[in-house]
Every structure is written in C-alpha cells, then in structure tokens.
C-alpha cells in the first residue's frame, strides 16, 4: 500500500522504455514519493525491464495506476503541473522546479490533490497534454541541449519536493569520533603554544609581539578543532620540545 504521507502523484505520460520507468520509480522513492501513474506505456504493462531497473523501488510499480489516457489519469487532481523544457505558446503560470514544489506543498497542505506530468522520452509532452495542466514547470537547462531523460526529470522534481517538505541541512560537518573542542580547550592550546614560542624567541621584534600573539590566538579560535585535534597538537609541540632538548 502507498504511504500515508500527503504528496503529489507523478504521472508518466506515454513512457517508452521500461528501464526509464523503473529508474523513475527509484528516483521517486529516493525522496519518499510513491504515487506513480502510468499513461499508455508504449511497451505494455507490467514491464519486466521496469521491474529490473526499479531495484528496491519495485513496490511503486506494483501499486502504480495504469490509465489509457491522460484525462483519466488526472481526473481527480485539483491542480496539475506539466514539466517541459521548451516554450509552448500557451498562457500559463511557469514555475521553476523549486517554486513549483513549494507551491504544490502548500496546495496539498490546504487539502488539494496535485499531479505532475512527465512526457515520453523522445519529445516530451505534446501541446495537448500541456493544455490540460494548470501550470508549467520549466527546467532551466542548456538551451542548446534541452532534452532531459525521464528519470532525471523525475529525480530533479522529487528532490525539490523533498526540499519543500522536509528539513534539509544546507551544510554540516559530522564528527567521526569524539566531540568538538570547547573554548577552554582551545585557550589552553593557545597558552601552550604561546609559552613555548616565547621561549624559542619567536615573538620578535618586541614591538610586534603583542600583535603576533593576537593573530596566533585568532588562528586557533578560527579553526574548527575537535578535542582529539587539540590533544594531538599539544602532543606535537611536546615532542618537538623533547627532541630539541635531546639535541
């Protein structure tokens, strides 16, 4: 059974290759989408090549709705988007994938039923297909090579759906082990290095010593150090001092 998560239906219109249908299923499930509708697939349905390509997302193919025509596939939808990379000469709102999925998320949250149309691999959606949609999703591709593979377009749209509906961390630095160094850890490291460098005569001439010490402390505080990093840097300095004393 499909999940209970509110989401759009992805409608594959007259898809040609079973492999692309299977890859589209994988792309959908990567981002938690499992409402697939298939309209008049060229090679019939079910398609063993689609099953082979879907890998762990075969459930989506088992539960996919099969329709003979587009009207039946989107008959229950309250808002329909058509994906296309080229101008159609039709007066409709045109969304980027990001804006479209944010808009879709709001419509679904308000109780709407949303469908997204994806055209066949060879030439994409026909004008008659796009005319059934309320809005267009235009992917900003290279104008000299605007053709997107079916599964690529599904993947891109699914990613934007995920961004619109789930917390996506823009940047993070996971620690493999241990924990981040505290301000006290870093201050003690700075003291250690300042003391030893003072003994070595590094802060010269005297008129520049204060500024050099400030710059060094700023260097330590600017670095994202773990406690293991701090311990290693203490150890390096201790070993260098021992080596000098042995010499």
UniProtKB/TrEMBL annotation:
Q: Does the keyword Membrane apply?
A: no
Q: Name one GO biological process term.
A: tRNA nucleoside ribose methylation
Q: Name one GO cellular component term.
A: cytosol
Q: What are the UniProt keywords, alphabetically?
A: Methyltransferase, S-adenosyl-L-methionine, Transferase
Tell me which residues make up the tRNA/rRNA methyltransferase SpoU type domain. Answer: 10-157
* GO MF, one example: RNA methyltransferase activity
**Superkingdom, according to UniProt?**
Bacteria
A family per Pfam: SpoU_methylase
Record keyword DNA damage present: no
Q: What family is reported?
A: Belongs to the class IV-like SAM-binding methyltransferase superfamily. RNA methyltransferase TrmH family.
What is this protein called in UniProt? RNA methyltransferase
Q: Which organism is it from?
A: Sediminimonas qiaohouensis
């Amino acid at each position: 059974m499909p999940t209970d998560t509110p989401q759009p239906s992805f409608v594959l219109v007259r898809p040609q290759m079973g492999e692309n249908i299977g890859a589209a299923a994988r792309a959908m499930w990567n981002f938690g989408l499992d409402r697939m509708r298939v309209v008049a697939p060229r090679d019939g349905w079910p398609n063993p090549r689609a099953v082979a390509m879907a890998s762990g997302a075969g459930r989506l193919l088992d539960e996919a709705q099969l329709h003979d025509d587009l009207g039946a596939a989107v008959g229950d939808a309250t808002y329909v988007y058509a994906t296309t990379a080229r101008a159609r000469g039709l007066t409709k709102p045109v969304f980027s994938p990001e804006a479209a999925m944010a808009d879709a998320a709001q419509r679904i949250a308000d109780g709407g039923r949303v469908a997204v149309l994806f055209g066949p691999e060879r030439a994409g959606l026909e004008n008659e297909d796009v005319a059934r949609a309320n809005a267009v999703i235009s992917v900003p591709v290279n104008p000299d090579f605007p053709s997107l593979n079916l599964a690529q377009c599904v993947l891109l749209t699914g990613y934007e759906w995920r961004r619109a509906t789930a917390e996506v961390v823009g940047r993070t630095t996971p620690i493999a082990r241990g924990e981040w160094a505290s301000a006290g850890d870093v201050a003690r490291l700075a003291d250690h290095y300042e003391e030893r460098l003072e003994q070595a005569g590094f802060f010269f001439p005297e008129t520049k010593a204060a500024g050099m010490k400030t710059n060094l402390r700023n260097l330590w505080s600017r670095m994202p150090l773990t406690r293991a990093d701090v311990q290693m840097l203490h150890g390096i300095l201790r070993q260098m001092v021992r080596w000098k004393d042995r010499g």
